[in-house]
Amino acid sequence: MIRPDRSRLEQARVLVVGDAMLDRYWFGAVDRISPEAPVPVVLVEREEERLGGAANVALNVKQLGARVTLMTVIGDDEPAQSLRRMLERDGIPSLLGRDASLRTIVKLRVVGRSQQLLRVDFESRPAHEVLAQLLGNFEQVLPQHDAVLFSDYGKGGLAHIGRMIELARAAGKPVLVDPKGHDYTRYAGATVITPNRAELAQAMGPWRDEAALAAAAQRLRAELALQALLVTRAEEGMSLFDAAGTLHVPAHARQVFDVTGAGDTVIATLAAMLAAGLPLRDAVPIANRAAGIVVSRFGTAAVRYEELFE
Known about the structure:
This protein is α/β, with parallel strands linked by helices. It has helices spanning about 5-10, 55-65, 80-90, 135-140, 160-170, 195-205, 210-225, 260-275, 280-295, 305-310; strands at about 15-20, 20-35, 40-55, 65-75, 95-100, 105-110, 115-120, 145-150, 175-180, 190-195, 230, 240, 245-250.
């Protein structure tokens, strides 16, 4: 695995655009079953908040040592205030659009005995393209960055992503997309998209074997004019499909504790490495190693340069 020059990485600049959210955790003890229904009773002992969604992607870029700017739209509510405080605490410069009609996305996870028992989501579907109000800001800051990363969680914030991809590619910036949904045509022209197995199957249908997967992936890559398609495959590692063929990187052998946020870490690592000048094929094994580290931790997590290349 190639080790990128640290000084170049520290000068690399990544613009992260997408659906930011707040991850909340309630940790507690489970000692009995409720008399009202056959469900466990959790006595909450500790609460924790973490950056989620595109905000977690930005944090992953920052922890690797690269520079990052987060562009997103949040509501005018208490979770939005928490997000702003955490971004300031972690030193993540942000272009935050505010929309009073939008409910800031919150994912609340209830955890007992180190096991996630329940997840409760709080969100509202925007009635309009919420990031459209930041298009001018996007054009203004684009020249100051070396790579653009779109973190699409399917919450409506990137319904019209095509124009931003066009602007970034016209400026010669690599564009990375973490996709959602079954229609990938809106990501046309991106440098690389990074679906997981389930997401790719939703977009192009199931495959019966490796040859069928490679053929279908290459067809999709050609149809969307992508430089590459990277499929994250959990215990099977990752497969990169590009003009040179297929590059498969096996998963790192380590205990899997929680896969939450692993996709965020993968694309954040790729973006940081591309921004630092590494070719995509050299960046993929590094992203694979980063994913192997974060899945051994609970909840959303980030990887530092030192532990990635120790």
